[in-house]
Amino acid sequence: MAPKAVSLPQTAKPRSSKPPIRHLWVHVVLIIAIIVIASPLVFALIKATQSSDQVIGPSLLPGTQFFHNLASVWGDAHLGRFMFNSFVVTICVTVGKTILSLLAALAFVYFRFPLKSVAFALVLFTLMLPTELLIVALFDLVSGTLKWSDSYAAIIVPFLASATGTFLFRQHFMNIPLSLADAARIDGCGPMTFLSKILIPMSWNTIGALAVIQFVGAWDQYLWPLVIMQSDDKQVVQVGLRRLIDVGGQTDWGAVMAGALITLVPPLLVFTLLQEQFSKGFALGQDK
Amino acid sequence: MSLTSKRRVPKAGKVSSAPEERATFRNPVLPWLFLLPTFIILAIFLYYPALRTLRLSLFRSNIILGNESFVGLAQFAELLSSPVYHQVILQTLIYCALVIFLGLFSAMGLAWLASRPIAGAKFYRLMLIYPYALSPAIAGTIWLFLFNPEIGVVNSVLSSLVGVRPRWLDNPLLAFGLVVLAAVWKGLGYNVVFYLAALQNIPGEVSEAAAIDGASGWQSFWKVTFPLLSPMTFFLVFTNLVYALFDSFGLVDILTRGGPVYGQTGITTFLIYQLYEDGFRNFKTGVAATQAVLMLVMVGVITVMQFRYGNRRVHYGA
After folding, report:
1. Residues on chain A touching B3 (C-beta within 8 angstroms)
2. Do B160 and A60 lie within an 8 Å CB cutoff?
């Protein structure tokens, strides 16, 4: 005991005087890494501002044509339309998934009912069934049987259930003391009141973390919209990017870069706004 | 009154299996009502298509012609003996291994550096994780321009420095490397987020104790931090495997379209791209379904392994 108490202040001293030198290489490595990681985006940003003459040259000086480039993809190449579609789809999927997962987690954590293990296993099992693998049959169902091709329903409804969300909320609810639910019940709270008045206010970090994952996931959808949407009318912006490159033989790269950057803004915004909740939701979710 | 009767029942009720421990509300209908929307979606858009896919894999069919004939396991036999499919499997595995290894290695190192108590740590963390918001399609679009042989900035720099202008997307090896790097770049933010969360959970005393014992930064990383991160690494290996298997589609579709040709087929034609090509370009629905079944088996094995060998700290954050 005693030697430890003596040795602590001694080792603490060099630690506090050393860091500036010791940490220098950490800063250097991190700054280099950040530059490397950001460079493709910085490149895209610069090229997005250049005129069509500059953009095919090696110049990396910012130009003044950003809004001109943006206007040309926004209207002429339907980017505005694609963005709007992506917004509708992503918001519907994110909100829908959150609500459905909250309800499912509520059932799994706070109720006892027959066949619960079977129901749980059925949700668990869906983790093994990525939609990408089912596209052939799903295409048949959605376009053939349901006749949903070229409608928002085709890229919203199949994605409303979320095993990930159900498990994340379930895990979070299990960390909340059960006595709280008991107290609420004794006070005459029904399950829905309990969910809206107690569970949801206690779950903002988890909801935020999940919202980021689901927003980014839904916004980034590519394969399924590519397959199911035949016309540009309801197409999402990720597939729209491919259309921008395809236009004619001559790609207007300045405009395409402007398009790519605008496509990046919504998930980046959601991520930045919910970044705190996102990190906390996972740090907490990991506790147990 | 009602309190005692409600209390008594759950206590007396037999606690048979794990997920039933925490029940509080008692109502036989409500939980099913809460689960109903989830189950309806899962049944129609996941379970039913999965069964249809199984069935389709046994029929030779064409979605355009609308014909189908039962061929049993013939399509499985064809695929598993096809040199083209062998090459696709092999290059998918190499691609996955490279993406996982490079991605996790760099993310772990960077997260570890950014988690240290240095000035501006918060800024560094944010700058490392924002690429999470990138999509495979955006990554593909930007890289396509960066490495454009005539007007891409990479070749502008290379030709002025060393006088070469490689045709990045026409050379199999270069194109393959490019797709790997773009995928690692795109996935970095995600991996850093999870490593940062894991590092946050390691008590500060652990590395402090190592420092007191005279461990250098490097030693403390390899001997202390690295082993403590292994549950997270394990989890990330699986999520990255799934990411590499499926999210590679958007990237490949924009950047290389599965090419350039090397050996039997395009060198960046990975399993999911092959499935799409057969299903929606060549309209060989049956063969595409067979590939889907083979990949389902793969994903099933991966998931089971994750649950078997991942410990309790594994969470479902994918």
Report:
1. 186
2. no
Each domain of chain A, given as residue ranges in start order, spans 82-247+269-281
For A14, the 3-state DSSP assignment is helix
CA distances from A171 to A114, B89, B198, B315 (A): 21, 36, 17, 8
Of B272, B227, B274, B264, the C-alpha closest to B248 is: B272
Selection from A267, A43, A171 nearest residue B190 by Cα = A267
What DSSP assignment string belongs to chain B?
A: -HHHHHHHHHHHS---SGGGTT--B--SSHHHHHHHHHHHHHIIIIIHHHHHHHHHTTEEEETTTTEEEE-TTHHHHHHHH-HHHHHHHHHHHHHHHHHHHHHHHHHHHHHHHHTSS-TTHHHHHHHHHGGGG--HHHHHHHHHHHT-TTT-HHHHHHHHHTS----TTTSHHHHHHHHHHHHHHHHHHHHHHHHHHHHHHS-HHHHHHHHHTT--HHHIIIIIIHHHTHHHHHHHHHHHHHHHHHTHHHHHHHHTTT-SEETTEETT--HHHHHHIIIIIS--HHHHHHHHHHHHHHHHHHHHHHHHHS-TT-----
Asked if B35 lies within 8 A of A107 by C-beta distance, the reply is yes
CA-based radius of gyration for chain A? 25
CA B77 – CA A133 distance, rounded (Å) = 19
DSSP type of residue A142: I
State the smallest CA–CA distance between residue B147 and chain A in angstroms. 11
Count A/B contacts: CB-CB distance under 8 Å.
313
Select from A8, A113, A134 the Cβ nearest to the Cβ of B50.
A134
- Among A4, A111, A213, the strongest candidate for a mutation testing the B interface, having the largest count of B CBs within 10 A, is A111
CB atoms within 10 A of CB A87: 14
Specify the fold of A82-247+269-281: MetI-like fold (1.10.3720)
Q: Strands B67-70, B261-262: parallel, antiparallel or unpaired by DSSP?
A: unpaired
Please state at what angle helix A163-174 crosses helix A79-110, rounded to 10 degrees. 40
pLDDT digit string (tens) for chain A, length 288 residues: 334 333 344 444 444 444 556 678 889 999 999 999 999 999 999 999 988 888 887 778 888 888 888 888 888 888 999 999 999 999 999 999 999 999 999 999 998 888 889 999 999 888 888 889 999 999 999 998 899 988 999 999 999 999 989 998 998 898 888 888 888 888 888 888 888 888 999 999 899 989 998 999 999 999 999 999 988 889 999 999 988 886 556 788 888 999 999 999 999 999 889 888 887 776 544 443
**3-class secondary-structure state, position A251:** coil
Cβ within 8 Å of residue A127, ≥6 positions away: A163, A164, B303, B316
